[in-house]
Amino acid sequence: MTRDLDAHAAKIGKQDKIATGILTLIVGLVLALLAAIVVYILFQGLGKMLTPGFLTNSPLDDENPGISFELFDSFYMLLWTLLFSVPISLGAAIFLVEYAPENWVTAAAKTAIETLSSLPSIVVGMFGSLFFVVVCNFHVSILSGALALTMFNIPILVRTIQQALEDVPRSQRDASLAMGLTRWETTTKILLPAAMPAIVTGVVISAGRVFGEAAALIFTSGSAPARLNFASTNFGSPTNPWNIFRPAETMAVHIWKLRMEPSQGNDVIAWGCAAMLMICILLFNVLARVLGKALAKKMTAE
Amino acid sequence: MSQDRVFEQSEHRSVQGVETEIEVKDFDLWYDNGGFQALKHINLDIPKSRCTAFIGPSGCGKTTLLRTFNRMCDFTEGVKTEGTLKFEGQQIFEMDANALRVRVGMVFQHPNPFPMSIRDNILYGPARMGKLSKEEGDEICERTLTEAALWDEVKDNLAKSGLALSGGQAQRLCIARALATEPEVLLMDEPTSALDPISTSIVEQLMVELAQEHTVVVVTHNMQQATRVADKTAFFYRGNLIESGPTVEVFSNPKEQRTQEYLSGRFS
Q1: How confident is the model at residue A300 (pLDDT cuts 50, 70, 90)?
Q2: Which residues of chain B are within 8 Å of residue A302 when distances are taken between CB atoms?
Q3: ipTM
Q4: Helix axes B134-147, B197-210, angle to 10 degrees
């Protein structure tokens, strides 16, 4: 057999170039598509968004309706969702990683969580409207909405936290256990701090998803702009912004609502709202990276 | 400090007539709920305040036995044991596992400092048994780091992350951390296999020094290391304890053919 190394090198060199070219093209297309969406939404909505009063006026303002209540409700809903979903997910993930014995019950729980994470959000919304609104009698309210979003958020958070805990090297677990620390001490003092950068990143990214969710909220927290009075001190009043038993409309639901009643004015507000929503979610993602990196650096640096 | 010479123990200490710290009697261990027997009828005395080495080819059961001494085997599912295992006269499997592990410390194959400062690494164990004053914390840091021959290198920088140390320094930090709970026994599972020769030499010297006041049990795949550090050596093969005795005797005059073959490098 004769070996023609030069011909072989030329051949594989050419293959390598073609593969690199195709992969670059694919990535370029994906990036271009993303950039096109972002640019188009900003082009349509940024002007409206930056109009004086848009972010601060009430949606019920006759002259110049804004999205101040939707903006507030989006963040307030997110706050309650995280208050519910983070502790539950943390507990579930710690149990699954550190305590659960390897048997069919654990396997079934893991499969259930994975299935739940691919449940359509409109179905979560329907369940929420039946269970939280009717059965639990929480009415169409922030509480019902936040609980529906919690159901939607838990599977994703559990998987993220599970992954973060599993990524802590086995050797650190062993070191702590070998010093006579219980599993609980090992979890709270070693595993959670070590996994914290990944957990924080995961929580903030999931917050971005929750923030933009509309379908799960339409039946649970309502789609009519709440009439909020920030001067109210009566926490039972439906106009008190902090009352979690009042209906609320987030920005994402507001967009859906406006597009259901098309008109020149509504479309412009919807685009402005979309631009604001997108910028918030981009900021969440930036925040997730910055926080995660800062925490990781704090742990390993001098 | 010159560390570029190979450490050599001047003189092995006698293990005859020494009090027994850990007693292993007719001990069996199975993995996979009885599917695989990893230790077969082991009988062995670990002498107090001496260094004992476990040698043998991979998968012979030496690490398995070591991990029963502080019940780290509890964390492996499907482990079953039979026979007697006593620490200072008490049945190890009847003791409180966490209390046992405070008294029987462990150092692992790969240095595994926690992602926190050197000082916090050391005080991690003692701090949970009661609040430490700053002076007490300082005292524990200085004592254990000195014992682990790391004090001079880090004394001005105790706030530095344990993860920022070199491999050899990190392993000595792990030794200091294990010493901080004041254990009577120190188990070392191939503690130098991930270290460079100079760090290995320092850690070997440490083993001998620590064995003055602690009972040291070291698992090693390096036979020369056993001759350098251990007063007593036990040779394992396929879950059996083939031979054990004073290191000098086992190496210079092995009684069993298997031991001879292993020591002469005919199999590994």
Answers
A1: low
A2: 157, 159-161, 164
A3: 0.84
A4: 110
